[in-house]
Amino acid sequence: MGEILPYLYLLKIGGRYGFSMTEQSAVNAHQPRPNIFDRYVCSPTIFRSNREILRPSYIPSSLPHREREIDQLAAIISIGLNGDRPSNVLVFGKTGTGKTATVRFISNEASRMTRERKIEFLYVNCCEADTNYGVVQYMVNSFITNPEERAPYNGWSMERIYTLFKEKTEQLGRLVVVVLDELDRLVYKAGDDLLYNLSRINDDLKNSKLSIIGIANDLKFTDFLDARVRSRLGEERIVFSPYNAGELSDILRDRAGLVFQEGVLDEDVIPLCSALAAQEHGDARRALELLRVAGESAERERRTKITAADVYRAKEKIELDTVSETLRTLPYQSKILLMSIIIHSEKRSMMTTGDVYEVYRNLCNSVGVQPLTQRRIGDLLSELDMLGILRARVRSFGRGGRTKEVELAVPINETRDILAGDELLKSYRTSHARVQTTLI
DNA sequence: CATCCACAGGAAGATCTGGTAG
DNA sequence: CTACCAGATCTTCCTGTGGATG
User: Mean pLDDT across the stretch A94-118?
Assistant: First the structure.
């Protein structure tokens, strides 16, 4: 019998609580006695239509400053409308440069081009389906309408699910364009086996053809591909450059016109959102988010104007929300580790892997959890560094050895509070005093 | 200039999870 | 029930190393 690890159960607690109020729930609000939601369901003073238009999932009817890229991609895909197989394409660009929007735009256009659909687009986000099996399973299931026939999340062999995918593609009898968004993530995590198979699938297909559009942030990910895969996949390349502040302003103005009531935006709001987002590698997604959150905060306070101050506040809110969401969804062991770092930070802000590990072991003991090995903790520290929660850099102290120097990169008190909101708190509160004494 | 500390971090493989299939 | 699957997580074992120090 395997040992039961207690953290598996404790981990379940403290999940996500964020309920978002939908437009529909507002409809049921008129009742004889005052409803608690009344004061939130105010008259439309700020937003005039669906604020979803400001979310990244929304595909607008035109994409300003992406005409060249749209042309390039359309030229490639149009080959498919004549019954031939378009080249595989790799699309590169930083987050929020309009890669996904452009590809989706093209796929929408291609789909309504002819009455009988000649091209079937399969969109897969490789962040959500982030394993080879996961991607194929997702693609197979998007062919299947009957829920009882859907492929399971696990249990099947890779070969079985891949064969089914080939069969389904073949049955379709037309061009299938597979869009693999965030492809670099998949390759880093799961290698290029799937790409190898997909890129030569046409050898086995008679009635159908398959093309691949790979979307990636990182230009260098192709270095990790097998040479054959690299040449087959990168038949065409399109690079999206970041938007500059002026271009971001155009995008924001377009969308703001659709979403906001006339005259609610102070004139410096859009330039400010654009400037802030331009600092972050021209991320349109960020610019739109700033605008939306600023609008929501003005609405909540029942004001009729959105000001620059709202934008600055939105910026802070977004940053804080991102961090606290990351903290809340951390695995249990990482939370214990982070708590150890906080405990140590109260004495000294800089620490080495060895320091952290000692505190961590003590904390595990007092909480009653089996501690992980130092090797593993080293990896977890690197993960927390990647998430931006820590700063961990490798440093040599000569004869003092070579180690990671670790420092907390988020505010200590807020972080402790968020971690303490978890079940961990109960153990931590009771054990805190003991841990403190064992440290000295 | 060799030594040596305190790890870093790669490789391989064990263990566990949540499933299918016979 | 057993055999098997993919993937996540973690351990064991290992070689490598920057630079202060004797």
Answer: 88
Amino acid A184 CA to nucleotide C7 C1' distance, rounded Å: 19
Q: What is the mean pLDDT of residues A160-168?
A: 96
pLDDT at residue A290, rounded to an integer: 96
Q: What is the pLDDT of residues A363-377, one digit of tens each?
A: 999 888 999 999 999
Is A167 found in the same domain as A71?
A: yes
The encoded tokens of residue A193 equal 């086996």
Alpha-carbon span A233 to A18, nearest angstrom? 40
Kindly report the bases of strand C lying within 7 A of a protein C-beta atom: 4-14, 16-21
Share of chain A above pLDDT 90, in %: 70
Bases of strand B lying below 7 A from some protein CB: 3-11, 15-21
Is strand C within 7 Å of residue A3 (CB)? no
Residue A355 three-state SS: helix
In a domain, A361, yes or no: yes
Looking at the structure, tell me whether residues A72 and A220 fall in a common domain: yes
Higher pLDDT, A83 or A177: A177
Nearest-CA neighbor of A396 among A347, A353, A429, A348?
A353
